[in-house]
Amino acid sequence: MNVFECGFAAANKDVIRMCADLEHGWANLVEAYGFDKTDYLDYGESRFRCRLRLIEKAPRSYESRKAFHERYLLEPLKLGSNSVSLHGMKLEVDVPLAQSWKKTNDLNRRPIVYEIADDVFSIETEEGSIDYRLQVWVVLRGESKMFVPDQFEYGDGFAWIGGRPESNREKF
Question: What is the DSSP letter of 48?
Fold first, then answer.
């Protein structure tokens, strides 16, 4: 296994699975020790940019924060609509595509899933308890049909957010 891999969890490509090897990817990130990696996943003519960041939140005097300690979660944790599993030194995050996506704040307004949890889990060491912060980003780069562009009615002075009402009606 690579240090960080991003792929689809099923053949129908409706869930993105990010897998992190915390044993080999744990490093000094200047402000804390942790794991911070990015990978790309092709999706038709577009691609997803997947980023996973897990950092420790412990006093600087703790020497045990410099390495990730084995931990097993009995059942997956929820991070928004996403599922987080920890099997020893392997972290897996499943991001379903069928969830609420937001737009990025840049000029491109790309679809994004961003979730953060400050105390997602903790590990007891000889020096004390170490809490961990988890951040997940999935950004669609390229052509997107996820959002209907806003339609402006110039005579009325307002915009139909998400398109005109008749743009989402079924035609029989």
Answer: E
Number of H-type helices and E-type strands within the chain = 1, 14
Residue 51 has phi, psi (to 5 degrees) of -135, 140
Q: Rounded distance, CA 67 to CA 86, Å?
A: 16
The H or E element spanning position 147 is none
Confidence label for 18 from pLDDT (cuts 50, 70 and 90): very high
The string of pLDDT tens digits covering residues 131-154 is 999 999 999 987 766 555 555 555
C-beta separation of 54 from 136 below 8 A: no
Please check whether residue 24 is in contact with residue 39, taking contact to mean a CB–CB distance below 8 angstroms.
no
Query: Residue 144: what are its φ and ψ, rounded to 5°?
Result: -135, 135
Domain ranges for the chain, please list them: 4-145
d(CA 96, CA 88): 23
CB 32 within 8 A of CB 57: yes
Gyration radius of the chain over CA positions: 20
Q: Is 156 exposed, middle or buried (0-12, 13-18, 19+ CB in 10 A)?
A: exposed
According to DSSP H, which parts of 29-165 are helical? none
56 to 85, 117, 125, 153: CA distances (angstroms) = 17, 12, 13, 50
